[in-house]
Design a protein that fits this description.
The structure is a single chain. By secondary structure, this protein is α+β, with helices and mostly antiparallel strands. The chain has 4 helices and 9 strands; from the N terminus they run E-H-E-E-H-E-E-H-E-H-E-E-E. Helix 2 packs antiparallel against helix 3. The mean pLDDT is 95.
């Protein structure tokens, strides 16, 4: 039985991907002194739920469960912008661009996905969902001083408040293959949200 490293995500349209790529290039120059591993632009996505190593024969069951979730949600749009770090500015691990979910539609969708996957045996998420697009991860060997300085620098960065719109029309099951030069993501199933 083949094991696949899977997650559930929303994929980005090319226009938004291009806008994020331009922002990422600018930030790479601005933050060049910090030990960062930058996400590949072709891999930008918004994660709803990480599933991890999964038997390949469970794919159809996952897709069927997600189709039921998708049938309960109509398409919507999110404005993309704002920059930040996780978990906090004192010890950042992840540099991200935010998504604005004023009506909590993304949060409801993620909660529905989490519940559906829990019914198939995955653990429920303990942390509250925080939709974001990962631009970079701080390398593991980075010390506290570097991390604090990065957090302070990012807090002073402006000009990334309106990078585009993310239309949420479908949800995808993605495969992640870890390679020495970064992960490769492949869409293995997709389900459309209910047309309003």
């Amino acid at each position: 039985m083949e094991m696949l490293r899977l997650f559930v995500a929303i994929n980005l349209p090319e226009e938004l991907r291009a806008s994020l790529t331009a922002a990422q290039r600018h930030l790479q120059r601005m933050l060049a002194e910090y030990p960062m591993r930058w996400s590949k632009p072709e891999g930008f996505h918004l994660t709803l739920k990480f599933l991890g190593d999964t038997e390949s024969d469970r794919l159809d069951m996952i897709a069927q469960s997600l189709a039921l979730v998708a049938a309960r949600h109509t398409p919507f749009e999110l404005s993309v912008g704002g920059i930040g770090v996780f978990p906090n500015a004192r010890r950042p691990n992840v540099l991200w661009i935010g998504v604005h979910d004023e009506k909590h539609r993304l949060r409801h969708l993620a909660a529905d996905v989490d519940k559906a996957m829990a019914q198939l045996g995955w653990r429920r998420e303990k942390r509250p969902f925080n939709g974001h697009l990962t631009l970079a991860r701080v390398k593991k060997y980075a010390g506290g001083k570097d991390r604090r300085a990065l957090g302070e620098t990012v807090a002073m960065v402006h000009g990334y408040d309106a990078l585009g719109v993310l239309p949420v029309r479908s949800i995808s099951v993605m495969r992640s293959q870890l390679k020495p030069n970064g992960a490769i993501y492949t869409e293995v199933r997709v389900v459309d949200l209910q047309v309003g």
